[in-house]
């Protein structure tokens, strides 16, 4: 049976065998009254979460040991129903290499489309003409070592852009907002190119601060050192290897990365000391705030209340009418 | 002698009679040792401040009584020098109706040009298609009663956009930034039109909060009630006279005006409760912050320091190299 | 059987039919094992909450559709007992117009008595002699359009004066405290009259910010615009229709309404700019704080602890001994 | 010549000898070109400050040694004029015992009149009937040891009630405000009596925290320990000597004294834990705030501005019209 | 059977009678279906908590009335098992005088050992040579009245040093840290001795602020007045009874006690005004912070996470690797 | 004449020629009435500031061009007096290489002595036994490239340790305080060694953040990037070049450097995440606070007041008696 999404499984499939590909996000081992162990699994894709019973757990313990926090599995199982909910009884379970599946089917993904995202990236990259700046972007982003991560990581753990390609979409938003300000306020070409580079790099180190999706969480390095330090550290090292990298550009770009949270109390160890750095900070804020409001309102669309509940990072509730 | 700007008067004119048009910004009455009163005047235009001696003060006291805080005068005077500074001895002084002079010659003025500003305004006005919103803009802005003020007032007393056409330029910047965000984040047409209206109106009441240029300062109404209240108050009254004004639009636009300072502690009595209101708040911030940095750096261009002094509203100094 | 309050129903009435008037505050529709729908109702008056079973729900669905959030009903029912609690089985249920009942029987009500409250109001009203101020009070309060609401609404959603006639009692407290300060500090008559007017009007717009009791909650207008703006807005419109309303009085009274929360971070868009406004702010604080402590201590009277739990708006616990 | 106030000395007295009684507030020793020492004195009374030349300084050095910070002197001198200002040349100078003069002539004094102040004190004292509370007041206030100080000290160094009898007037204001709240909110008699005692005692230790007028400043004890600790310390010692002093009253009154600044950040080591303590805190605030606004407005009455300058402790300027 | 610690009771004792000494920390009275009352007790020692059934409750009610919050009992009972947990059925229960048991067996206790603690105390006591300071310590600490409490009380209710001898250990840590700073920074002998005294006394009044262990909680006096006031109050009284107690030492030591929380918002009514007071404040902070981190990490040692959960008083999580 | 310190020059030298070595800290070019340029110089050493007239400025302009901010000069001049102050008239002026003078004669210097400081450094260095940690210290501190700077730079621009060898003394204080805490709290050897390394490195990058003494001020790099980032950046690079540098040690040491300001609002981009990092933060605070109080009190020793003026970074005044 050709099942693409978990939500496609319905009562018509009762007692049929189906095969699904999904994320295995929870394994709870339980004991029957006869002291036999079995497992309650939870699997999910973008469409739904579903419970799976796995009675052969005892025979297959070693499969579950050493599983990462969120793994892609292929499950063959019998469709059943329990308290009105569709649930599977697992017959076979196997790991899938994450390259065999489209991540976008399994976890929330940017709705801009990878193609649009990549075109946008190229559009701004092409605006940078100074060779040392171009070289900096080449080595930090458009290189085999980092590009895969940079173009798939999320930009936050929760609240905003916490989805596949999230970092990419966020960077692009920041670029668009910042560039509009830069041209409106007639910054020099040098300032504009520098600002573009700063937008590209400001959250770069989130690719080391977060664990790769579908896992959600910080790395040890991320918690102990943070993306602000890690990004400026790597950028400085790359700059120093580019021959003749302009000293003022170096200081300004590094200050921009260090200062992009805008205030010490938000984790920037220095304040933005240039107009470019201040624009970057504002563009970053807007991208985060607006996305978090929009995704929160989507989440709460179905409740009947006139206002959403309080969105914690914004400190207020939102009016749901009038759209 | 054909003098256009005060700075054109130099040592070559010593002992010549010149005629200048300038703002009279200070009148200090003094007494000679022989107990005769005379006046030390200060006049200014965009190029310079200059001292003027007026020995015939006693014969002409009534001229000075009842002068406003900053008046346009035509002065015929003899060029002299005192402690290395050019100074005038006034022979004749006369009021000039402010319509007889180009304000841009006398006070700092937006460098965008009125034409550009007006085209920008029209560009965004044309994007608003909903008749009730168009009607609101017509009655608040594009009406004889307010247009003159709206298009000439400053947007702040100091720090940013504190110049002729300053409000107009600020509103246009806010519109550009907000509109870029709105389209990037794919807001609905209804949201976009509402946002444009909110940008137009958010600082509208500054035309009552400030005294008209060249005077710089608050009106009594401005200090006691503030432009946030005054703008929402007037907007609500106009909305209620427009037949069938959509109730949700009304609440959202008024909340946007009331909430555009973004936080209670910045003087907004309510928080922004919609995504439009939040975008307006951010766009307003950026326009103010970036203009205040840029104009401050221009002011300090000539000092030899690597960094500016501390810009009080931003809480930091700025790096002057690299532009 | 003549039942006045729910708490009068006791085990002596078991299996009797009683008739009660109460607020219907919750309707939960449930399904029996035989798939028949019935309703679990909760009703309450000032004395008690009580559960009511309504087995005929399916036959009477349309009665429950379109019910407001808290409605007055007359119920005829059989007294039963379940797990030690008295409960009714509903035989008949009917809506009651809220005018047919004394609200004070159904919801918490000021213990000052309406008569006392109204005398107090009159006492201070009579102290205002300036015709334009008297006229302002006449049109804002002593008019058919608003008096009913003004004299019955609560002054807060929770914490203090959140009961029937709460706004009235709060206004009267504020008047008493403010007037004592004004006379002690020898304010001029003009200042005193203005202060009285400001006390009357400061929370006026709570009659639009809150839903009418017994419902507890904000209106859309209330959440989006707030009582501070709404009150000043309405007051300004009324003042402008009163011929020759003194301009200084207008600014001072409006500033007092706008500033009565005392600080920007508490939602006042401008600070109190006169001694009257500052007195109003303090009197408002005291009335709220003291009532919230007293009602909280009453609530916790029965616990055996020496101290109350922490009262969230005051940030501390209170000592219960020594009264 | 019968001079009562310094401001009475005018040009008509030029070259006459006058005798004045005033505070000597500054002594600057200077040297003439011939290396002879003389003194420039400044004296003041409630009406004016005046300069006095004292040429015989060298012959009279020991008079000036050991003078306190502000001493009452009788000066016989010749009236002169210097740069348009009346000034004296001292012929004789002598100390005056502070009991020989009416302090109210020399330093700013409460305009309530001592009689009114004392009647007020008595009025509230008489409301306290519980013997242990009466005894506490008797020993802390109505005793030879402290009464003189308590009835003449100021209540602050600047901003409010910083005048002769200032503490007395402040205590009376606090009593009036607090008592109005207590009766309006129907506190028990026990609570009311306790509240009266707390009002009497809350600032009691200012008589040890400040130096006696006309000196203005803190004692060492005052700076190191503060009136909050000193007052509670003394009160606790007195209570413990009163036989059978109620334990709850003791805790509540001491908590009231310790907590009367209302928040930890204002110097209270504990928060107000009773309704009486919270009333005391508010009444104390109002008395201070309102007096500081009123006296500041009086000070600035003569400037032509519509608004005062900013009053630092209140954080804002005040509107001067409309009184 | 010789049971020392609750954790020694295991399945081997099933159905045996054991005798244990433990703290009785909870008594819940319940009713059987046959309406007979029995009690569910909870007892604990440092090793474990355990449930105890007491069926003869009705016959022995008076035993439980008037029990304090945590009492030492000797229980003879039958070992049973319920849902996999060892539990006792009580046969006999009796109070034990707290002097009959070693508290360290029943509640968490400093792991420094009483001997080490006392030697440390003596070490610093011996450094104080000035007789009036020695006398102050003698009367406040080394006196029968207080020594027992001072050497057994905890230093906090939770977070840090909340164990038997906790205050003693905390005082010793503060002494060590402060003394290192004092000698490194070359303070005078007089300053060093004073600092030692201040360290000894700063938290002295915790012996009145807290209830004695094993009870955990504040006394009424503690909540209403706090240890900062109580400690300075007592110290001042003792100082005033010591003949010729140096006045400067008195002010400095009292300021040190009052100021040891370092900031007004942390409950100090005055700021530290000497270098000794500032050192005391820092040493107190470190002792508290470091102990709270260490004990929190010990608590969370067994979880598998790389980081602890968030430690509320420090506002962050801690890295558990690398020790 | 053998002059060592400027303060040795007195009235006995009037009209003599002296030779002095001092810092040239100010050059003001002035013009005589005859339009000739001359220079007013200010020179200083640790003992005094002194004015110097240099009449031959016009002949020697090129000498002054290109002088750094504070240069060591040898001046031969005539001793004169002006308005009671000793002043020189310069006859000859010459640059001195800073290696020809003992800096300690010219600028304030640690009073611990270089020998003591170096011994202290060695003492703690020897406690580190882990080879990778030792290697880190060797490359960061005990290397020709950095040791000179590390051992002479100040630790702050003002307030504390702003003198020659200031950084060295500060690091040593931090080591002493931190080590006392670590041993008292029984940290493991591994933790102790890591803590020592963190103390050594925490302010390391001040040698790039500040300009070298006698100049006082930030470098561009210092203002734009800050010593927190620069220090962690360099340390991370060095660690990565040390083969097999323990990963946990790396994270913990870098977190310690990044977190040593203790709170985000003080410029740390991450919080201290280990007990070592928290100890470092406290030890750093104490060293800075106590030194700033002590040096401030020394500065104000001579004023007659009982209290110092307010020390801005501590927010209070200090009691000067009792030492």
UniProtKB/TrEMBL annotation, chains A, B, C, D, E, F:
Keywords: Hydrolase
Name of this protein: 3'-5' exoribonuclease
Broad EC category: hydrolase
Species whose genome carries this gene: Alkaliphilus hydrothermalis
Ribosomal protein in keyword set: no
Domain of life: Bacteria
Any one GO molecular function term: hydrolase activity
Enzyme Commission (EC) number: 3.1.-.-
Signal peptide: none
Pfam annotation, one family: tRNA_anti-codon
Domain HD/PDEase residue range list: 163-302
């Amino acid at each position: 049976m050709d099942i693409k999404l978990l939500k496609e499984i319905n009562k018509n499939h009762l007692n049929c065998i189906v095969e699904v590909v999904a994320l295995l996000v929870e394994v709870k081992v339980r004991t029957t009254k006869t002291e036999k162990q079995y497992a309650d699994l939870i699997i999910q894709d973008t469409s739904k979460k579903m419970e799976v019973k796995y009675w052969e757990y005892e025979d297959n313990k070693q499969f579950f040991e050493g599983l990462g926090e969120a793994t892609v599995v292929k499950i063959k199982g019998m469709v059943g129903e329990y308290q009105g909910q569709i649930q599977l009884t697992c017959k076979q379970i196997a790991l899938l290499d994450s390259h065999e599946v489209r991540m976008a089917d399994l976890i929330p993904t940017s709705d801009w489309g990878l193609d649009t995202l990549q075109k946008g990236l190229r559009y701004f990259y092409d605006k940078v003409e100074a060779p040392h700046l171009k070289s900096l972007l080449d080595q930090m982003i458009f290189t085999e070592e980092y590009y895969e991560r940079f173009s798939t990581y999320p930009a936050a753990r929760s609240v905003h852009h916490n989805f596949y390609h999230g970092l990419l979409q966020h960077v692009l938003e920041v670029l668009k907002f910042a560039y509009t300000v830069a041209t409106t306020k007639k910054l020099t070409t040098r300032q504009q190119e520098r600002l573009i580079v700063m937008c590209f790099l400001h959250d770069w180190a989130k690719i080391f601060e977060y664990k790769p999706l579908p896992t959600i969480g910080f790395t040890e390095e991320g918690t102990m050192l943070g993306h602000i330090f890690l990004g400026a550290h790597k950028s400085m090292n790359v700059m120093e290897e580019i021959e003749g990298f302009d000293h003022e550009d170096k200081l300004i770009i590094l200050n921009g990365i260090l200062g992009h949270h805008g205030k010490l109390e938000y984790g920037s160890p220095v304040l933005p000391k240039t107009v470019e750095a201040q624009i970057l900070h504002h563009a970053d804020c807007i991208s985060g705030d607006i996305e978090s409001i929009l995704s929160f309102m989507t989440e709460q669309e179905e409740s009947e209340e006139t206002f959403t509940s309080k969105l914690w990072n914004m400190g207020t509730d939102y009016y749901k009418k009038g759209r």
